[in-house]
Design brief:
With 176 residues, the chain is mainly alpha-helical. Helices cover 62% and strands 3% of the residues.
Length: 176
């Protein structure tokens, strides 16, 4: 189980790096233009991926508690995400923020024990049914979240005729 989650976290890390590099080639106006997606602009969709990662990591911290060696991997300086349109400087700051959160996620998963995966985590998403889900389920949800939203970005880039085949199957990330 651990190897699968590490592989997915590495895949997400590679995808985030690649998407950032593609979006970074666009002008500030192109990144900030409302594209009709739920989150509006390309930068807003991408920022949401990071926000989701930070949110899930906070749930993991709460579920395992401060004494967990895995939680120590998530003890990086707080990342605050600006709202609304980003300035160029705010956009540039997202790259290092993704690097930090993605590296911490891989470290976190690497430090999890088999018992950690089974821990029940309280959630409020399902109107109390269920009231808890296993940590491994939330890890899977985090991985799918990033893949889903990078797919949205890919569709927008496709409509703009901007090459973005970052989602092609590669194995480059497996060697990291």
């Amino acid at each position: 189980m651990k190897e699968t989650y590490i592989m997915l976290a590495q895949y997400n890390q590679e995808g985030n790096k690649t998407v950032f590099s593609i979006l970074d080639t666009l002008s500030h106006e192109e990144r900030e233009q409302d594209r009709g997606s739920y989150y509006g602009s390309l930068s807003s969709v991408f920022r949401h991926v990071l926000g989701g990662t930070i949110y899930f990591q906070s749930i993991f911290k709460s579920a395992l508690g401060p004494g967990s060696s895995a939680v120590k991997a998530l003890s990086y300086p707080a990342i605050s995400l600006p709202e609304g349109n980003l300035t160029e400087a705010q956009w540039k700051s997202l790259g290092p923020c993704f690097e930090t959160a993605d590296a911490a996620q891989i470290e976190f998963i690497s430090a999890l024990t088999l018992e950690d995966y089974q821990k029940l985590v309280k959630v409020e998403w399902y109107k109390g049914d269920p009231a808890t889900v296993p940590l491994y389920f939330l890890l899977q949800q985090l991985m799918v979240h990033g893949i889903h939203h990078r797919g949205q970005i890919s569709q927008i880039l496709d409509s703009l005729k901007i090459d973005n085949n970052y989602s092609g199957i590669n194995v480059q990330f497996l060697s990291t």
